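Reviewer 2 asked us to include a model.

Predict the structure of this chain.
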Amino acid sequence: MDAAWYRRYLAMLGLTQIDGAAPSLDNLNAIIRAHREIPFESISSLMRRAATMEGPVPPLDLAVLLDTWERHAGGGVCYEFGAMLGELLDHLGYQPVPNLARISFPGSHSALIVQLPEGRHIADVGNGQPIFEAIPIDTPFEFSRGGLGYRFWLDESIGKLVQDRHEHGEWKSYVWYDLEGATDEEMEASIQRHHALPPMTFVMQNFRIVSCRAGLIIQLRDHDLIHYRAEGKTTQEVYGLMRYRQVVADEFGLTGLDVPKALAAWVAVTGSRI
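Predicted model (structure tokens):
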């Protein structure tokens, strides 16, 4: 990308001061926290699929993605965030390595491996979880936010970093991160699988937006608007164009999203009703 793209990207994140700074864990964490202001959402993928209903979808265009983020017209899932963050970190001297992970199947998630003086870390901003920092690979890491518990640990027997979640009083393994880099071909294949019909992941199934904040996680999943807090969760139903417009703008800040087009894509791809 050209120099102007990086300047715009850092300005959007409010981090122009770190351009030219030496890579550090503190700066990496600041970059990750800034990205959590951009909603995690499947809507962009639904619109991409609706525009090309058969065959592979076009490759990601990072110039278009940055423009979309600047206009508050969308966010993305793991592959959009990973491609954008990877390009930025490479520019800043971090030498990130894309890696794949297993949730529903091998390669159904992706993130970045970053080597720092403090050790190896996973930078995972393309998820609907309250992860606001780089995750150490070689040291166990645990936290609780929004009433949800998480822990990460290295399973040396299989050579993967495992993400556990605390649910219903017990820990359950949820994500297995590969610790070797993925090729461009593997990353592109993963993107295309997420756009596959019949669906292989939630991306082609759900109208989903997630915003993670300190002490609060907000999720719109089809017709359910859910607020997660330490004291519990609340759920409201969402129906009709006007209500979707209100929720998308007020709850998630996506004031530039073409909501009628997004809902039409959801209906076209999944057959859902508004």
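The first strand starts at residue 40 and ends at 41. The chain is about 30% helix and 30% strand. We have added this to the supplementary material.
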